[in-house]
Amino acid sequence: MTMRIGVVTFPGSLDDGDAARAVRLAGAEAVRLWHGDADLHGVDAVVLPGGFSYGDALRCGAIARFAPVMETVADAARGGLPVLGICNGFQILCEAHLLPGALTRNQHLHFRNRDQHLRIGSTSTAWTGQFTADQEILIPVKNGEGCFVADARTLDELAAEGRVVARYVRGNPNGSQRDIAAITNEAGNVVGIMPHPEHAVEALTGPSLDGLGFFASVLHTLAGAPASSR
Amino acid sequence: MTTQPETAADDVVAPPAMPNQSASGFGGKPTGFAATDVLAEGFGTPDTVERARSTPDDLQPHAELGLKDDEYERIRQILGRRPTAAELAMYSIMWSEHCSYKSSKVHLRQFGEKVPQNTRMLAGIGENAGVVQISDELAVTFKVESHNHPSFVEPYQGAATGVGGIVRDILAMGARPVAVMDPLRFGAADHPDTARVLPGVVAGISGYGNCLGLPNIGGEVVFDPCYQGNPLVNALSIGVLPVQRLQHKEAAGVGNVVVLLGARTGRDGIGGVSVLASATFDDAAGQRRPSVQVGDPFMEKLLIESCLELYDAGLVAGIQDLGGAGLTCALTETAAAAGTGMRVWLERVPLREPSMSPTEILASESQERMLLIVTPENLDAVLATAEKWGVWATAIGEVTPSEAGGQPGRLVITWNDHVVVDVPPGSLADDGPVYARPLREPGDLILLQADHAETLPRPSTPDELRETLLRMVGAPNLCDKSWVTEQYDRYVLGNTVLAQPEDAGVLRIDERTGLGVALSVDGNGRYARLDPYEGAKLALAEAYRNVVVTGAEPAAVTDCLNFGSPEDPAVMWQFSEAVRGLADGCQQLGIPVTGGNVSFYNQTGAAAIHPTPVVGVLGILEDVARRVPMGFPAPADADGDLLFLLGDTECELSGSEWAWVTHGHLGGRPPRVDLAKEQALGVLMARAARAGLAVAAHDLSDGGLAQALTESALRRGVGARVSLPESDDPTVPFVHLFSESAGRALVTVARGHEQAFVELAAECGVNCAQIGTTTGEPELEVRGQFTVSLEELRAAHTATLPGLFGGTAELANRHGAPEEAQRPESTTLAPETPALPDTEPSPGPSVTLELTDPARKGGEEPREGAADPSGS
């Protein structure tokens, strides 16, 4: 059966179409979810896409976390539903306290868009199982507020528990602490990543096909997971 | 005459009760601004039509609003009385240079007269943007516009709203905007004011365009002292629509409802087009900041989505964006286009500031607004869609019949039952003054043209040549522009096939068929200064060439004509020559000008900018998978791919980047342009791309062959070895490297295809010479002259802009240090913060080679950064 992966559209979401395309290219059905609709329509996983939800007013992701759909997403995530937050989606997950830490203004204060090398740090999440440990991948990064910060204890914990999913290598584009580009929750079902895997899924438009790995991974996870754990 | 339609003031839709209200700045109660409050606050009765009739001799500030005495007299004639204050403001806006094209109209006609009707054209000049059909089902619309004056006064908002404005033009045609490009021109790179203007402009474009979700796929960044007080911030947008979704601006259908959609109206931008854009800058420019609009890209994103949903549901009878000239322009143009009348209740317009007078409401250039014409039965559905997206929608008026005897209807505007405007809309929109202004060739032109750069001392030894190369590739106009372009999102929407620094931006339009377009926008003010007729043709030729080297077939043109004051006969002569050159060029190339924009008064005091026609060319690619990129690909074997130089190289150094950089020289005649040869090059490249004969191609323009070799090599870190023609004259190698002859391109052909390529070139009538090969070595070698490592070349090419405008290291020092001190992990942070690959020498050949991974094709090569030092 084709897996159904939800992609949420908030007012100001921008990469929602790209995330849906990536889901389709990975072989799943993309289900568009609306911020004002708390119903997840029975999807098997959820992607919170990049963009500027609610115009990034107040603080990136601060308003989106209160959207009706996010209450359901948060409950389901705590119940094990795989959730991937990309860029603004990562910011929303942090605001929703599904992930620790926060994303702040890039240290150099500029928006930056470049092709970025990452090293995969954990392959035991729902979204990274198809990568190999320490695999180096290349996907675009583009953000103005992507500098990951957390207190030292949290950073130590993330490292000790293998919850740093990817780190920037060959240059840190935004000043993130300990080069952190992506992290996961304790259960490994919720992943937040600042760079954009959905922009590296076609040779024609991306710097590589490495982004597909995230979407292929969750399909593999779902195929192997007992229904009760979702 | 004031029967209120059923769509009364309470047909105001507030955004839904979503949390965005309070945060996005459009919170507040939609009905809380009742105009009675305004009166209660002590504002008197506005100047009404009745009052204007009874006080014919009242003095009016027409001159302050930019209207000449005879223009004011004409208004009185049209109305048969003095205008009201609101009417006077409306005429001053609509008859401004910016809106009426009064000085340029007589010249711009050539664009229509000289190009035969093109079957691809669905809409042309006079519409919000030209529309070009690219397949049975799909069309694209594109246009370039200026936002020069506001961007000097307030760089961030000026540039941001420039993007917003052009995007709404595209949206108004029924299209989804899919990309933007920004040709930018600033004063001297090292001038202190450039350090104010450039970062602000770039941040404004970045802040607005990125938040709108539109990839920025190209443009220009040019420095010249002539733009010091008058930077040029031009913005181009392109959109896609199903052919049957094409929208019109006519306010047709008597009884239809006039709906204002989008942001509330505030006091920003009042006088933008009349005071700011239609006059020469003087010392008081800084006081005009309130004339600059303030943008909210989030609102524009919602506006885009709601308009597209309305189009698809067939709910829109007519639509016009509100940009420069605001409500005045939208109301008069929609009514004039249909020949109908219109009745507007101005007190219904949702306001940010309740104390605004009717004149201010009509003149406001608040951003993110559209005017819709909707049938009464569709009104509820329109309001519901607006509510879904959290956008204000307000019925503010209705379409009224034309006058007896088939005369066009009148535009009647009331404000709390006071009639403040009663005018024939066509008198504002179409019947503005037209001037055939005096023309006179600039007095200094003969001397300027006699001062050739070909007589300047040239490098003649290998060492001098090598040094010249390194100096040139780091010159502000030729250096790497990543400092700027990395601030733009080029990936969003997932259809960007090529983006800057490629020659043209290439977009996939149809995911099923691979149908796409290529777009380039170019100009050269120095060439146009030396010869505006040829300069305009050269700008066209360069944009055309940039498009054809990708393999695309050019289809249409848009232009942004940036000039000084039209009241100066010398400027007007430059303008007329440039328009003539562009029109002749388009005629010869068989591609129509579909729309554009004129920006006059780019002048501070008596000093005008170089005449700067900026030309955008749109090409069509049947299959974007066949596009030809710019950079040398990693060679398949040790022998490398073959490099061919197409076209003829003459000794043409006048107006060149070399003459400017090394001698501060501008004089002589610009390079000769032969459009037949450009066309032949285009045919060759299209056929070569379709046949898969070219693996890379790069046009030759500023900086000549040397610059093309540098950019092609650095793109993916692949070196090359070339030979230049031998001669007894020791400066001949220099001429071949730095001459800026037009009609040339550098093409990379894989071994085995060279014979087919050479034959094809002969068939197309294009001169073609093999000048070298790509190599496995990370260096550029000019045989018998010099070798330079790509590392050194890259360092020279990339250091300039970070050095001028601050790299990440500088910012880290300024802003990062205190933070680090507070953070225990500062020790890990410090080493990688210098992500400063831009200014640091690259790590060496091994990394450079690593970057040539053929699997990475399609995107930019990653820049080498400092190796990850911590791995923590």
UniProtKB/TrEMBL annotation, chain A:
Gene3D superfamilies per record: 3.40.50.880
Entry keyword Nucleotidyltransferase: no
PROSITE patterns named in the record: GATASE_TYPE_1 (PS51273)
Coiled coil spans: none
Keywords: ATP-binding, Cytoplasm, Glutamine amidotransferase, Hydrolase, Ligase, Nucleotide-binding, Purine biosynthesis
Gene Ontology biological process terms in this record: 'de novo' IMP biosynthetic process
Pfam family, one: GATase_5
InterPro entries hit by this protein: Class_I_gatase-like, PRibForGlyAmidine_synth_PurQ
Annotated Gene Ontology cellular component terms: cytoplasm
Subcellular location, record wording: Cytoplasm
EC number: 6.3.5.3, 3.5.1.2
Catalysed reactions, semicolon-separated: N(2)-formyl-N(1)-(5-phospho-beta-D-ribosyl)glycinamide + L-glutamine + ATP + H2O = 2-formamido-N(1)-(5-O-phospho-beta-D-ribosyl)acetamidine + L-glutamate + ADP + phosphate + H(+); L-glutamine + H2O = L-glutamate + NH4(+)
Residues of the signal peptide: none
GO molecular function term, any single one: ATP binding
Pathway: Purine metabolism; IMP biosynthesis via de novo pathway; 5-amino-1-(5-phospho-D-ribosyl)imidazole from N(2)-formyl-N(1)-(5-phospho-D-ribosyl)glycinamide: step 1/2
Residues the record marks as active site: 87 (nucleophile), 196, 198
Origin: domain of life: Bacteria
Major place of residence: cytoplasm
PANTHER family: PHOSPHORIBOSYLFORMYLGLYCINAMIDINE SYNTHASE SUBUNIT PURQ (PTHR47552)
Family annotation (NCBIfam families): FGAM_synth_I (TIGR01737), PRK03619.1 (NF002957)
Quaternary structure annotation from Swiss-Prot or TrEMBL: Part of the FGAM synthase complex composed of 1 PurL, 1 PurQ and 2 PurS subunits.
Purpose of the protein: Part of the phosphoribosylformylglycinamidine synthase complex involved in the purines biosynthetic pathway. Catalyzes the ATP-dependent conversion of formylglycinamide ribonucleotide (FGAR) and glutamine to yield formylglycinamidine ribonucleotide (FGAM) and glutamate. The FGAM synthase complex is composed of three subunits. PurQ produces an ammonia molecule by converting glutamine to glutamate. PurL transfers the ammonia molecule to FGAR to form FGAM in an ATP-dependent manner.
Protein's UniProt name: Phosphoribosylformylglycinamidine synthase subunit PurQ
Organism whose genome encodes this protein: Mangrovihabitans endophyticus
Gene name, Swiss-Prot/TrEMBL: purL
TrEMBL record, chain B:
Residues that bind Mg(2+) 2: 169, 321
Description of how the protein assembles with itself and partners: Monomer. Part of the FGAM synthase complex composed of 1 PurL, 1 PurQ and 2 PurS subunits.
GO molecular function annotation: ATP binding; magnesium ion binding; phosphoribosylformylglycinamidine synthase activity
Active site positions, chain numbering: 98, 147 (proton acceptor)
Function of the molecule: Part of the phosphoribosylformylglycinamidine synthase complex involved in the purines biosynthetic pathway. Catalyzes the ATP-dependent conversion of formylglycinamide ribonucleotide (FGAR) and glutamine to yield formylglycinamidine ribonucleotide (FGAM) and glutamate. The FGAM synthase complex is composed of three subunits. PurQ produces an ammonia molecule by converting glutamine to glutamate. PurL transfers the ammonia molecule to FGAR to form FGAM in an ATP-dependent manner.
Annotated residues for binding of substrate: 146-149, 168, 293, 365-367, 599
Main location: cytoplasm
Protein name: Phosphoribosylformylglycinamidine synthase subunit PurL
Record localization: Cytoplasm
Residues reported to bind Mg(2+) 1: 145, 597
Chain spans, region Disordered: 1-33, 806-872
Domain of life: Bacteria
Enzyme class name: ligase
Basic and acidic residues bias locations: 812-823, 853-866
PurM-like N-terminal domain location: 126-240, 502-620
Reactions catalysed, as given in the entry: N(2)-formyl-N(1)-(5-phospho-beta-D-ribosyl)glycinamide + L-glutamine + ATP + H2O = 2-formamido-N(1)-(5-O-phospho-beta-D-ribosyl)acetamidine + L-glutamate + ADP + phosphate + H(+)
Keywords linked to the UniProt accession: ATP-binding, Cytoplasm, Ligase, Magnesium, Metal-binding, Nucleotide-binding, Purine biosynthesis
Family: Belongs to the FGAMS family.
Domain Phosphoribosylformylglycinamidine synthase linker residues, every copy: 60-102
Keyword Hydrolase annotated: no
GO-annotated cellular components: cytoplasm
Domain PurM-like C-terminal residues, every copy: 254-403, 639-783
E.C. number(s) listed in UniProt: 6.3.5.3
Pathway: Purine metabolism; IMP biosynthesis via de novo pathway; 5-amino-1-(5-phospho-D-ribosyl)imidazole from N(2)-formyl-N(1)-(5-phospho-D-ribosyl)glycinamide: step 1/2
